[in-house]
Specification:
Elements: H1 2-17, E1 27-32, H2 35-53, E2 56-61, H3 66-75, E3 82-86, H4 87-95, H5 116-119, E4 129-142, H6 154-157, E5 167-170, H7 176-183, H8 191-195, H9 198-209, E6 215-218, H10 223-229, E7 235-239, H11 240-249, E8 254-269, H12 277-287, H13 290-296, E9 303-304, E10 338-339, H14 342-361
Parallel strand pairs: 1-2, 1-3, 5-6, 5-7, 8-10
Antiparallel strand pairs: 3-8, 4-7, 4-8, 4-9
Helix pairs in contact: 2-13, 4-14, 7-9
Length: 362
Protein backbone atom coordinates (compact mmCIF):
# COMPACT_ATOMS: atom_id res chain seq x y z
CA UNK A 1 0.00 0.00 0.00
CA UNK A 2 2.78 2.44 0.89
CA UNK A 3 4.51 1.63 -2.40
CA UNK A 4 1.28 2.35 -4.32
CA UNK A 5 0.86 5.66 -2.50
CA UNK A 6 4.46 6.61 -3.30
CA UNK A 7 4.03 5.78 -6.98
CA UNK A 8 0.74 7.71 -7.12
CA UNK A 9 2.29 10.78 -5.50
CA UNK A 10 5.24 10.66 -7.90
CA UNK A 11 2.93 10.36 -10.89
CA UNK A 12 0.82 13.32 -9.73
CA UNK A 13 3.96 15.44 -9.32
CA UNK A 14 5.08 14.49 -12.80
CA UNK A 15 1.70 15.51 -14.19
CA UNK A 16 2.23 19.00 -12.82
CA UNK A 17 5.67 19.42 -14.39
CA UNK A 18 5.01 17.62 -17.67
CA UNK A 19 3.05 19.13 -20.53
CA UNK A 20 0.78 17.26 -22.90
CA UNK A 21 3.77 16.21 -24.99
CA UNK A 22 5.51 14.72 -21.98
CA UNK A 23 8.21 17.42 -21.95
CA UNK A 24 9.09 19.40 -18.87
CA UNK A 25 7.03 22.63 -18.84
CA UNK A 26 9.14 25.49 -20.23
CA UNK A 27 9.76 28.84 -18.62
CA UNK A 28 11.37 32.05 -19.83
CA UNK A 29 12.77 34.71 -17.49
CA UNK A 30 12.37 38.30 -18.71
CA UNK A 31 14.17 41.19 -17.03
CA UNK A 32 12.76 44.68 -17.40
CA UNK A 33 12.52 48.02 -15.60
CA UNK A 34 9.65 47.47 -13.17
CA UNK A 35 6.73 49.73 -12.32
CA UNK A 36 4.07 50.74 -14.83
CA UNK A 37 6.34 49.75 -17.72
CA UNK A 38 6.81 46.17 -16.56
CA UNK A 39 3.05 45.94 -15.90
CA UNK A 40 2.36 47.00 -19.48
CA UNK A 41 4.62 44.21 -20.72
CA UNK A 42 3.03 41.63 -18.44
CA UNK A 43 -0.42 42.51 -19.76
CA UNK A 44 0.48 42.91 -23.43
CA UNK A 45 3.22 40.27 -23.82
CA UNK A 46 3.65 37.86 -20.92
CA UNK A 47 0.07 36.77 -20.29
CA UNK A 48 -0.88 36.38 -23.99
CA UNK A 49 2.39 34.55 -24.72
CA UNK A 50 1.73 32.04 -21.97
CA UNK A 51 -1.87 31.61 -23.10
CA UNK A 52 -0.70 31.00 -26.67
CA UNK A 53 2.30 28.74 -26.02
CA UNK A 54 1.97 27.33 -22.52
CA UNK A 55 5.42 28.74 -21.69
CA UNK A 56 5.44 30.49 -18.32
CA UNK A 57 7.05 33.93 -18.10
CA UNK A 58 8.93 34.92 -14.97
CA UNK A 59 9.20 38.71 -14.68
CA UNK A 60 12.30 40.19 -12.98
CA UNK A 61 12.92 43.90 -12.36
CA UNK A 62 16.16 45.90 -12.41
CA UNK A 63 17.06 49.60 -12.32
CA UNK A 64 18.99 49.01 -15.57
CA UNK A 65 18.87 45.46 -16.97
CA UNK A 66 22.05 45.97 -19.01
CA UNK A 67 24.19 45.87 -15.88
CA UNK A 68 23.12 42.52 -14.38
CA UNK A 69 23.08 40.69 -17.70
CA UNK A 70 26.61 41.92 -18.48
CA UNK A 71 27.75 40.68 -15.06
CA UNK A 72 26.00 37.32 -15.53
CA UNK A 73 27.47 36.64 -18.96
CA UNK A 74 30.99 37.62 -17.89
CA UNK A 75 30.68 35.37 -14.83
CA UNK A 76 29.36 32.48 -16.95
CA UNK A 77 26.27 32.21 -14.74
CA UNK A 78 23.30 33.38 -16.79
CA UNK A 79 19.78 33.13 -15.36
CA UNK A 80 18.07 35.73 -17.59
CA UNK A 81 16.65 34.68 -20.94
CA UNK A 82 15.42 38.03 -22.27
CA UNK A 83 16.27 41.56 -21.17
CA UNK A 84 14.78 44.93 -22.08
CA UNK A 85 17.63 47.42 -22.59
CA UNK A 86 18.30 50.88 -23.98
CA UNK A 87 19.68 51.26 -27.50
CA UNK A 88 23.25 52.26 -26.65
CA UNK A 89 23.49 49.35 -24.20
CA UNK A 90 22.18 46.91 -26.82
CA UNK A 91 24.83 48.06 -29.30
CA UNK A 92 27.67 47.99 -26.79
CA UNK A 93 26.77 44.59 -25.34
CA UNK A 94 26.48 43.15 -28.84
CA UNK A 95 29.86 44.59 -29.82
CA UNK A 96 31.36 43.01 -26.69
CA UNK A 97 30.03 39.59 -27.69
CA UNK A 98 27.69 39.36 -24.69
CA UNK A 99 24.45 38.86 -26.64
CA UNK A 100 23.02 36.24 -28.94
CA UNK A 101 22.37 37.35 -32.52
CA UNK A 102 18.74 37.61 -33.65
CA UNK A 103 17.93 36.99 -37.31
CA UNK A 104 15.36 39.63 -38.33
CA UNK A 105 13.99 37.27 -41.00
CA UNK A 106 12.59 35.09 -38.20
CA UNK A 107 10.35 37.91 -36.94
CA UNK A 108 6.68 37.84 -38.00
CA UNK A 109 5.39 39.96 -40.87
CA UNK A 110 3.18 42.91 -40.05
CA UNK A 111 -0.58 42.42 -40.12
CA UNK A 112 -0.60 44.63 -43.23
CA UNK A 113 1.54 42.05 -45.02
CA UNK A 114 4.81 43.97 -44.83
CA UNK A 115 7.98 42.11 -43.90
CA UNK A 116 9.41 42.72 -40.44
CA UNK A 117 12.42 44.56 -41.86
CA UNK A 118 10.09 46.99 -43.66
CA UNK A 119 7.56 47.21 -40.85
CA UNK A 120 9.84 48.18 -37.97
CA UNK A 121 10.71 51.87 -37.63
CA UNK A 122 14.12 52.70 -39.06
CA UNK A 123 16.83 51.83 -36.56
CA UNK A 124 14.62 49.49 -34.53
CA UNK A 125 16.44 46.31 -35.57
CA UNK A 126 20.09 45.51 -34.88
CA UNK A 127 22.18 42.34 -35.11
CA UNK A 128 21.39 41.42 -31.50
CA UNK A 129 18.23 43.34 -30.59
CA UNK A 130 14.60 43.95 -31.54
CA UNK A 131 12.90 47.17 -30.46
CA UNK A 132 9.50 47.10 -28.81
CA UNK A 133 8.85 50.75 -27.90
CA UNK A 134 9.71 54.33 -28.69
CA UNK A 135 9.90 56.32 -25.46
CA UNK A 136 11.32 59.59 -24.33
CA UNK A 137 12.97 61.34 -21.43
CA UNK A 138 10.98 64.46 -20.67
CA UNK A 139 10.50 66.69 -17.70
CA UNK A 140 7.29 67.21 -15.82
CA UNK A 141 6.08 69.55 -13.10
CA UNK A 142 3.48 69.62 -10.36
CA UNK A 143 0.79 72.04 -11.54
CA UNK A 144 -0.16 72.94 -7.97
CA UNK A 145 3.28 74.46 -7.34
CA UNK A 146 3.02 77.30 -9.87
CA UNK A 147 0.06 79.68 -9.73
CA UNK A 148 1.27 82.08 -12.45
CA UNK A 149 3.42 81.25 -15.44
CA UNK A 150 3.95 77.57 -16.14
CA UNK A 151 7.15 75.95 -17.46
CA UNK A 152 7.06 75.41 -21.22
CA UNK A 153 10.68 75.06 -22.35
CA UNK A 154 13.79 73.13 -21.39
CA UNK A 155 15.36 76.43 -20.31
CA UNK A 156 12.57 76.79 -17.71
CA UNK A 157 13.71 73.60 -16.00
CA UNK A 158 17.04 75.27 -15.26
CA UNK A 159 15.49 78.62 -14.27
CA UNK A 160 15.40 78.47 -10.48
CA UNK A 161 14.61 82.17 -10.16
CA UNK A 162 11.44 82.13 -12.25
CA UNK A 163 10.40 78.63 -11.21
CA UNK A 164 11.78 77.97 -7.73
CA UNK A 165 12.01 74.54 -6.15
CA UNK A 166 14.06 71.38 -6.20
CA UNK A 167 14.68 69.51 -9.42
CA UNK A 168 14.77 65.76 -9.99
CA UNK A 169 17.41 64.32 -12.32
CA UNK A 170 18.41 60.78 -13.22
CA UNK A 171 21.79 59.96 -11.71
CA UNK A 172 23.55 59.48 -15.04
CA UNK A 173 25.32 61.49 -17.69
CA UNK A 174 23.04 60.43 -20.53
CA UNK A 175 20.11 62.81 -21.17
CA UNK A 176 21.29 65.29 -18.53
CA UNK A 177 24.12 66.56 -20.73
CA UNK A 178 21.90 66.87 -23.80
CA UNK A 179 19.15 68.66 -21.86
CA UNK A 180 21.67 71.04 -20.30
CA UNK A 181 22.91 72.05 -23.76
CA UNK A 182 19.39 72.54 -25.10
CA UNK A 183 18.56 74.66 -22.06
CA UNK A 184 21.66 76.70 -22.84
CA UNK A 185 20.43 77.50 -26.33
CA UNK A 186 21.86 74.68 -28.46
CA UNK A 187 19.42 73.55 -31.15
CA UNK A 188 18.37 69.91 -30.89
CA UNK A 189 19.96 69.10 -34.24
CA UNK A 190 23.33 70.45 -33.09
CA UNK A 191 23.51 68.85 -29.64
CA UNK A 192 25.76 65.90 -30.46
CA UNK A 193 28.10 67.99 -32.59
CA UNK A 194 28.57 70.32 -29.61
CA UNK A 195 28.74 67.54 -27.03
CA UNK A 196 31.40 65.85 -29.13
CA UNK A 197 33.84 68.65 -28.29
CA UNK A 198 35.67 69.35 -25.03
CA UNK A 199 34.15 72.84 -24.98
CA UNK A 200 30.67 71.36 -25.40
CA UNK A 201 31.15 68.98 -22.48
CA UNK A 202 32.37 71.87 -20.32
CA UNK A 203 29.36 73.93 -21.37
CA UNK A 204 26.94 71.15 -20.40
CA UNK A 205 28.49 70.67 -16.96
CA UNK A 206 28.53 74.43 -16.40
CA UNK A 207 24.78 74.50 -17.01
CA UNK A 208 24.26 71.60 -14.62
CA UNK A 209 26.36 73.47 -12.05
CA UNK A 210 23.66 76.15 -11.96
CA UNK A 211 21.13 73.74 -10.40
CA UNK A 212 23.40 71.14 -8.79
CA UNK A 213 22.70 72.27 -5.21
CA UNK A 214 18.96 71.94 -5.80
CA UNK A 215 18.92 68.49 -7.39
CA UNK A 216 17.32 65.35 -5.95
CA UNK A 217 18.83 62.40 -7.79
CA UNK A 218 16.80 59.38 -8.88
CA UNK A 219 17.98 56.05 -10.32
CA UNK A 220 14.96 53.78 -10.83
CA UNK A 221 12.22 54.95 -13.19
CA UNK A 222 9.52 54.67 -10.53
CA UNK A 223 11.37 57.14 -8.31
CA UNK A 224 10.86 60.15 -10.58
CA UNK A 225 7.05 60.43 -10.29
CA UNK A 226 7.30 59.44 -6.62
CA UNK A 227 9.56 62.34 -5.63
CA UNK A 228 7.26 64.66 -7.56
CA UNK A 229 4.20 63.28 -5.79
CA UNK A 230 5.91 63.49 -2.40
CA UNK A 231 6.74 67.16 -2.93
CA UNK A 232 10.49 66.60 -2.76
CA UNK A 233 10.78 68.39 -6.11
CA UNK A 234 8.61 70.75 -8.14
CA UNK A 235 9.94 69.41 -11.45
CA UNK A 236 11.73 66.25 -12.50
CA UNK A 237 13.05 64.57 -15.59
CA UNK A 238 11.33 61.24 -16.11
CA UNK A 239 10.32 58.63 -18.63
CA UNK A 240 7.18 59.93 -20.31
CA UNK A 241 5.21 56.73 -19.64
CA UNK A 242 5.82 56.98 -15.90
CA UNK A 243 4.39 60.50 -15.79
CA UNK A 244 1.44 59.49 -17.95
CA UNK A 245 0.63 56.63 -15.59
CA UNK A 246 0.84 58.89 -12.54
CA UNK A 247 -1.29 61.62 -14.13
CA UNK A 248 -3.95 59.50 -15.84
CA UNK A 249 -4.09 56.27 -13.85
CA UNK A 250 -3.34 57.80 -10.43
CA UNK A 251 -4.84 61.28 -10.99
CA UNK A 252 -1.69 63.18 -10.01
CA UNK A 253 -1.53 66.92 -10.96
CA UNK A 254 1.44 66.43 -13.30
CA UNK A 255 2.08 68.08 -16.66
CA UNK A 256 4.68 66.96 -19.21
CA UNK A 257 6.81 69.52 -21.01
CA UNK A 258 7.68 68.01 -24.39
CA UNK A 259 10.17 70.69 -25.42
CA UNK A 260 13.62 69.13 -25.52
CA UNK A 261 12.37 65.56 -25.14
CA UNK A 262 14.94 62.88 -25.96
CA UNK A 263 13.54 60.01 -28.02
CA UNK A 264 14.91 56.51 -27.66
CA UNK A 265 14.15 52.85 -28.27
CA UNK A 266 13.97 50.05 -25.78
CA UNK A 267 14.87 46.67 -27.24
CA UNK A 268 14.69 43.00 -26.34
CA UNK A 269 17.99 41.10 -26.23
CA UNK A 270 19.02 37.55 -25.37
CA UNK A 271 22.12 37.29 -23.13
CA UNK A 272 24.82 34.96 -24.44
CA UNK A 273 24.31 31.58 -22.79
CA UNK A 274 20.64 32.15 -21.88
CA UNK A 275 19.38 28.88 -20.37
CA UNK A 276 16.17 28.94 -22.44
CA UNK A 277 17.36 30.43 -25.72
CA UNK A 278 14.69 28.76 -27.86
CA UNK A 279 11.85 30.01 -25.68
CA UNK A 280 13.52 33.43 -25.44
CA UNK A 281 13.47 33.82 -29.22
CA UNK A 282 9.86 32.63 -29.35
CA UNK A 283 8.94 35.22 -26.72
CA UNK A 284 10.57 38.02 -28.72
CA UNK A 285 8.95 36.88 -31.96
CA UNK A 286 5.53 36.86 -30.29
CA UNK A 287 5.87 40.07 -28.29
CA UNK A 288 7.15 42.22 -31.15
CA UNK A 289 4.31 41.28 -33.46
CA UNK A 290 1.92 43.99 -34.67
CA UNK A 291 -0.91 43.32 -32.22
CA UNK A 292 1.07 42.84 -28.98
CA UNK A 293 3.00 46.08 -29.61
CA UNK A 294 -0.25 47.95 -30.15
CA UNK A 295 -1.77 46.27 -27.10
CA UNK A 296 1.01 47.62 -24.86
CA UNK A 297 -0.15 51.16 -25.66
CA UNK A 298 -3.36 50.39 -23.74
CA UNK A 299 -1.25 50.32 -20.60
CA UNK A 300 1.42 52.98 -21.05
CA UNK A 301 2.12 55.90 -23.40
CA UNK A 302 5.07 54.47 -25.30
CA UNK A 303 4.87 54.23 -29.06
CA UNK A 304 5.07 50.80 -30.73
CA UNK A 305 8.21 50.14 -32.79
CA UNK A 306 6.24 48.75 -35.76
CA UNK A 307 4.50 50.96 -38.31
CA UNK A 308 1.62 48.50 -38.68
CA UNK A 309 0.89 48.81 -34.95
CA UNK A 310 0.15 52.54 -35.12
CA UNK A 311 -3.39 52.32 -36.58
CA UNK A 312 -4.32 49.79 -33.89
CA UNK A 313 -3.43 52.12 -31.00
CA UNK A 314 -6.66 53.29 -29.42
CA UNK A 315 -7.65 54.16 -25.89
CA UNK A 316 -6.02 53.63 -22.52
CA UNK A 317 -7.36 50.75 -20.44
CA UNK A 318 -9.69 53.22 -18.69
CA UNK A 319 -11.74 53.13 -21.91
CA UNK A 320 -11.85 56.93 -22.30
CA UNK A 321 -8.33 58.37 -22.70
CA UNK A 322 -7.16 58.54 -26.31
CA UNK A 323 -3.51 57.48 -26.34
CA UNK A 324 -2.28 59.20 -29.50
CA UNK A 325 -1.83 62.71 -27.96
CA UNK A 326 0.26 61.20 -25.17
CA UNK A 327 2.73 59.43 -27.45
CA UNK A 328 6.20 60.99 -27.72
CA UNK A 329 6.00 60.64 -31.50
CA UNK A 330 2.76 62.62 -31.77
CA UNK A 331 3.39 65.52 -34.18
CA UNK A 332 2.39 68.12 -31.58
CA UNK A 333 5.09 66.79 -29.20
CA UNK A 334 7.93 66.71 -31.72
CA UNK A 335 8.57 70.43 -32.13
CA UNK A 336 12.00 70.41 -30.48
CA UNK A 337 12.69 66.71 -30.04
CA UNK A 338 16.13 65.13 -30.00
CA UNK A 339 16.69 61.53 -31.10
CA UNK A 340 19.22 59.88 -28.81
CA UNK A 341 22.45 59.09 -30.64
CA UNK A 342 23.24 55.50 -29.73
CA UNK A 343 26.50 55.76 -31.67
CA UNK A 344 27.62 58.69 -29.54
CA UNK A 345 26.81 56.96 -26.25
CA UNK A 346 28.16 53.59 -27.34
CA UNK A 347 31.49 55.35 -27.94
CA UNK A 348 31.52 57.89 -25.11
CA UNK A 349 29.46 56.37 -22.29
CA UNK A 350 32.38 55.15 -20.16
CA UNK A 351 34.32 58.40 -20.50
CA UNK A 352 31.40 60.74 -19.83
CA UNK A 353 30.00 58.59 -17.02
CA UNK A 354 33.35 58.75 -15.25
CA UNK A 355 33.40 62.51 -15.75
CA UNK A 356 29.81 62.75 -14.46
CA UNK A 357 30.58 60.72 -11.33
CA UNK A 358 33.63 62.84 -10.60
CA UNK A 359 31.48 65.96 -11.02
CA UNK A 360 28.89 64.55 -8.61
CA UNK A 361 31.53 64.00 -5.95
CA UNK A 362 33.33 67.33 -6.44
Amino acid sequence: MKLKQLLLTTAMGAAVTLGASGAIAAEVTVMSWGGAYAKSQVEAYHKPFTASTGVEVKSVDADNPAKPIKAQVEAGNVSIDVADVEFSDAVRLCDEGLLETIDASTLPDGTDGSSATDDFIEGALTDCAVANIVWSTVYAYDTTKFSGDKPTTMADFFNLEKFPGKRGLRKAAKANLEMALMADGVAAGDVYDVLGTDAGVERAFAKLDAIKDDVVWWEAGAQAPQILADGEVTMTTAYNGRIFNAAVAEDKPFEIVWDGQILDFDLFVIPKGAPNKKEALEFIQFSTGTKPLAEQAKWISYGPARKSSGPLVGKFNDGKTEMAPHMPTNAANMGNALVNSFEFWADRDTELSERFNAWLNS
